[in-house]
Amino acid sequence: MRNEPADLREPRGRGLERRRAISDVRFETIARRFAALTRLSQTELDLLHRIGAGPANIWPARSLLEAPGEDQEATRYIISGWAARVRELQDGRRQLVQVILPGDALTPTLQVRQRQQMIQCLTMVQTVDGAAVKLAARDGGKFPGIAAATELAAAHDRALLMEQITRLGRHTAYERMANLFLELHHRCNVVGLVHADGFIFPLTQESLGDLLGLSVVHVNRTLQLMRREGVIELKHGRLTLLDTEALKPAAEFRPPSLAYLG
Fold first, then answer.
1. N or C: which end of the chain has fewer CB within 10 A?
2. CB neighbours of 261 closer than 8 A, spacing ≥ 6?
3. Whose CA is closest to 51, among 108, 153, 136, 123?
4. What does the alpha-carbon distance between residue 101 and residue 51 come to, in Å, rounded to a whole number?
C-alpha cells in the first residue's frame, strides 16, 4: 500500500531565521539544477524562490512516491533525499532503473500504468509542488529560461537512461561502478551537494547490485578493489572520489551535452 507524505512542519521556537535557511536551500537546489541547463532571468529566479519557499511534503525511506499501476501525479520536484525508478519482477527481484536526486522532477509525461513499475524513496525525501514550473514552461515568451530548462532536463534524463543501458549491456563490473560514481558526483555537484570531492551516498551494497545488475558479493569485491587502488573512500554513508582521473578511462562518463532547439 502506498505511503502518504507528511506535511513539513517546522518545530516551534526555531524562529524565522531557520525557516528562511530551509527555504533558501530548497530554492538553491531547484535553481542550480535549472541554471546548469540554461540562463535564467531574475523573474524566473523569483518564481523558483517562491516554489522553494512553499509547502513541502516528507516521504519516509522505502515509501512509494509513485505506486505500481496508479495514475501519475502532477509535477513535483525533489528538494532533498534520494529516490529511484524501480521495476519489480514477480519473484521479488528488482531493477533500479534510474536514481532521482535533489533538483530532479517527477514529471508525468505519459499515463502508463505498469504493474511492476514504481518510484521508491531510498532515503527520506522532501518534495515540493512543481505545478507553477509546468505552467511557466508553457509561456516561453515570459519564461524562456524555464521553458528551455524543462525540455533540456527531460533530454538529460533520456541521456542518462542511455548511459544506464550501456552500463548494463557492455561494461564490466568495475566499469559500471566507475561510470555510476562519476555520474552521481557530477549530478550532485550541479546542485551544490559535493564538498571536497565527496557527497552523501545512501546506496547500500544491495541497492548498488540492483542498480548495476551485480550480486552483492560482486559489488563488495569491486568496492574493495577500488579502495585498494586508492580511487575511492566509502564510509559512514559518504563517497569521496580520491582520484577521478584514474577512474575516467574505465568509466568513459561524459556529462550530456545538450542544446535547446526551441
1. N
2. none
3. 136
4. 18
How many residues belong to the chain? Answer: 262
Q: What is the pLDDT of residues 128-154, one digit of tens each?
A: 999 999 999 999 999 999 999 999 999
Q: Report the 3 state secondary structure along 200-228.
A: ECCCCHHHHHHHHCCCHHHHHHHHHHHHH
Q: In 10 A of CB 181, how many CB atoms?
A: 22
Reading across the β-sheet that carries 198-200, which strands appear in turn?
198-200, 238-241, 232-235
Q: Which domains does the chain have, with CATH numbers?
A: 6-251 (2.60.120.10)
Three-class secondary structure of residue 165 per DSSP: helix
- Cβ neighbors of 181 (< 8 A, separation 6 or more) are 232, 239, 241, 247, 251
- The secondary structure element, H or E, covering residue 99 is strand 94-100
Provide φ and ψ at 61, rounded to 5°: -55, 140
